[in-house]
Amino acid sequence: MASIRFGVWAPVHGPRAAAHDPLEPYDASWAHNRATVLEAEALGYDATLIAQHTVNPHFAERDQLEAWTSAAALAALTSRIEVIAAIKPGLFHPVVLAKMALQIEEISGGRFAINLVNAWNQAEFAKAGLPFPDHDARYAYGREWLGLVEALTRGETVTRDGEHFSLDAYTLRPTSRHRARPRIYLGGESEPARALAAELADVWFINGQPIETVASLIGDVKARPRAGEPLGFGLSAFVIARETEAEARAEHRRLIALAEQDKPAKAIQKANTDPKVVMFQTMARQSFVGTNGGTAAGLVGSYDQIAERIDAFGRAGVELFMLQFQPLRSELRRFAEEIFPRLGKIAAPAPAKLQSEAR
Ligand SMILES: Cc1cc2nc3c(=O)[nH]c(=O)nc-3n(C[C@H](O)[C@H](O)[C@H](O)COP(=O)(O)O)c2cc1C
Fold it and tell me: For residue 206, how far is its CA from the centre of ligand 1 (angstroms)?
């Protein structure tokens, strides 16, 4: 089993399980995101995922962190953690995005990654007058887009006349001084998402689901033709870890009850969602808190149970766990203190770069 890595979802749109929690005020500010990621790094977490939304997909009037400018700033402030920024191909030309990715790769010293997500929030595009083609046409666009970004970030001189983009001897410099190019993650569950992950991604992100489903999804994608290094697998999950299973279940019930208050917002989100997005079809069949599957991954239980389940996911092929917690900062600490040691993970040394030096 490859060594397991842990990441935390940055709080780009506040709390992940319930927006009205007396223990976790709504906060999507840069200050909160910065402090969370710096603490995660100090605790020994390996990665952070910064979701991309130009407008808050749950509460249109509430704050939303901007992913790419924040990723650049986090890259400068941290020294060890992997900074992963999501990107919806329909929002940026591939040349511009590849250039930004290479710049953040340099700022981070070789710790930057993109997470290609093919968009579900129709309103985000429609209200800006941007095209939002059908699900599979979006993936065809995303495939052409990612092919260009992959080649450009590797430093290839790209001449391609595609369906959507036409590039003439385009070369970006500098490329990464640390490796061939920034890492590519992909989050999406549909058939074209799986095909694209096998073809062009380095790591496929799976939504939180029971282990049998995750194992079968990994089997499906692993069996696909692929050139180069084997594909890695990441899993999104919301964790509720306590001394006893009963305490964890009680906290789960608390969050489920609080999440009831978000139902009107969820209805708006549902109305804005492309019904063909497989992720939401899967999630509609499950009961959970958190986003992207959340507690459906089953990481609700005693410290020992959580460690055992993570170990089982690891044996099924998951190498990176991208975690959600609520309240975020105290649960982030609890997980590092209680679960890391049970899995033989040693907390990382404190970040070498002092904040004062980084400014
Ligand atoms: C780990 C992970 C992270 C994601 N991050 C984002 C995101 O930042 N922004 C977004 O709009 N969608 C995000 N998504 C949702 C994808 O956009 C969604 O799955 C996509 O529409 C693909 O649809 P499909 O499931 O039909 O392939 C994420 C999905 C996963 C699994």
Answer: 9
